[in-house]
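Tutorial handout. Part one gives the primary structure; part two gives the three-dimensional structure as tokens.
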Amino acid sequence: KLVVHNIINQYSSMLDILEGYAFGQDLYIRSQACVPLSEMAVRRQHRLPDGTRFMPESIAERITSIAMRMLRNAARNPALLDDVSSVLGWIADMTEEEAIVVIDRLTPVEDMNGVHNRCGLLLYFSFFRESQFPELPRFNSEIFKERLHRELGNGEARFRTSLMWQMAGGAEGKTYPFEMIQPYLESFVAGHYYDNALFNLQRIFNVYASNHRDALCSIMLTALQGLAEYIAGDIRSRVWNVYDLRECFDLIANNCEEQCVLEAVALILRYRHRIPDVGLNLAGVLDRYESARAQGLRALI
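Part two.
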């Protein structure tokens, strides 16, 4: 209550107490110390009506210092890392060195909130941190952008799904600008099987298809290819993924230009012997077109 009621003159004393909790022997108490620390971290950058900072710089730095020490002391304990990530997620002015440590050390998180916190920080360091806090030394985002490409392409499924979910707008639906995320969508579809993250690619497609149709149709066609190859690799255990294949094809068929649609039809025809019972009305799709290629594909059905 002292934290949320903003009694700033007590923050130093509270940090003395919380520091004892945060580095004690009991992991549960260490974890619970993250609750008030998170509220303090939220207030680090707040300003008063006259423009002055809500808390002294020394207090703000001490909150960061405690959070980073907790991160290091958590080792690979996923439960404690999940809670520490809730504190770190509010510290927007990290240095490059601190940011690298945070992303690396939060990799063992397991809880969905911890995964989202860790991936949200990677997105923030990649896209936004460099333009924030001009009074601080320059923040080079390239190392984080390279990591984002890698994780979207061939990273762990939980991270790929979270990154795509957040770029698609998360729960609020505020999708990232297309020009910002397009190269990373290309890395995503060029990687291995798309697991649950494919749904979020479809969300992005639906938001931007009208203004960026050509680029998105190319991306979706690559996704269709990768998904078909994944299913064909073990049709018995992956038969349920045929539904994802149908949804991906339908997005292309209902939104893209003829050339892309015909490429999608040709792709499905190439896989029909390896993926039986796809259940797509390819003839109905081809009936929309009169080109020589459409007629040639129609003859193959």
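Part three, for discussion. The chain is about 65% helix and 0% strand. The two ends are 69 Å apart (CA to CA).
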